[in-house]
From TrEMBL:
High-level lineage: Bacteria, Bacillati, Bacillota, Negativicutes, Selenomonadales
CDD domains the record matches: HAMP, PAS
Name this protein carries in UniProt: PAS domain S-box-containing protein
Domain of life: Bacteria
Residues of the PAS domain: 142-188
Amino acid sequence: MRKEMEEEINEIVRELYQVIKGKDVTNGDSACAEKHPEFAKLKNELLLLRSFTDTLAKGDLSSTINLRGYWPGALKALQSNLRHLTWQTGMVASGDYSQRVDFMGDFSIAFNSMVLGLKDAAENERGYIAELEKQQEIIRESERKYKFIAENTGDVIWLLDTDGIIRYISPSVEKLLGFAAVELEGKNSQQTTLTFLWSAFQKTTTDNIQWHSSKVPVIVEEEQLRKDRKVIWLESSISIARDQAGTHIGYIGVTRNISERKRNESLLYQAYERKKRSEFFNKLAVRNDINDLALQEYSGKNKLHIPKDFSLLFFDVDTVPGVSDTADNHYHKQQLVDFLIDILNKKNNTIAWETDIGIVVLSDFASCPNHKERETELAESYVAYIGAYVRNIHVTVGIGNYAEGWSGLANRLNNAKTSVRIGKQVWPERYIYHYENCGIYQVLAPFAVTDGAVDYVHQMIGPLLPHPNLLETLEKILSGLSFKEIGTQLYLHHKTIQLRKQRIEQILNISLDCYETRTALATALQLLKILKLG
């Protein structure tokens, strides 16, 4: 009996050890379990605890156990803590660094330290990201500004690599030159029609070590043909392009249109040359004893052909198209005069300059028997030449008396001016007047500019000035026509002409049959035409 009991106790112990230490245990019935129900219950609970513990060990926190007591309670508490730790880990993963663990000893310390480290790292990362975003926004804003400038500025920004390939050119190139940027980028600058780029590349790729090591840009000016075949002037400011490491990667330039500046520079130069020429020849124009040596010296310095023999023409600009004769428009008239002088000086064998009252032109001309007719034709060709440049302009031309060489220049110029002054008054239907055709007016003209001329006219025919019909009749009588011929011309009866003659004699208290009186009256009438007192 005792031996059976010992064997039974040993069997119970073996089964309990098997539950606690065995690897594979089934919940099959045993003789002891059948014989002792309490043992069977204990064994079953141990197996449940074993299974629950094994599930926890594998990380499965979803299982449940329906047992009570210290050991099941401890396992349930561990399961609950692990579930809470899992939730806390998820919260930490989502960025909640306030989670702390205080139930697992050293693990709690390590976990809490890790969370604090993650918090610091996250804050540092947020700061870094914030700074990075700030810098990126600055870069984006800079790029927006740069793009706005590049697309809207009149200047063209470009980048050539060390082989002369166009790596970038701003969209403004289309506005400046008519080419789209996509047509040019990636092409060799030498193979495009943008000659200014190739010139700039050649200028900067010369073996200039000093410039390559300096930061001073190179300035290149170049004429450029636009896509529409118009030619403009460009100025390029070129600098060395380097990457962040300081390596030379090419050439960067900014190109702008300087056509207006070039035009102004040309106008300034032309104005300077025009003024210098006028000053030189106006000094000569008051002299009759010209030094040929001074002419040769001036000709050599200014590369100007100075003729040995010439025709002297004086141009008086009467009408400026679209400009009224007021003080406010004198500036515009001066612009026209300057333009006329410039185009006249471009004509072969011509020297033109401005005086205080008009334009003087010297044109190569050799002596010939019919020089008056030839000089008149020459003047007509100059008027036509001017008319080809300026429409609706009216000029009168005075031709000075012809003389060989430069001696008597002052007299010739004065005579040309006189012929214009006389011609405009006496022959208003013409526009070219030769001094040698002025006849008696050559003698009267110098006297006409004096106060005595006015006094003389008033003395001789002053009482007739209010009577234009009598002045006209007097001129016809003095010309030697008969009363009948005068009547025919004036559509009057010859007796009416005779009566007018008598009235004239009564008003002036003279006799028209006296030769000296007729000569004096004729002189007064010619002076009147010059003076235009009537």
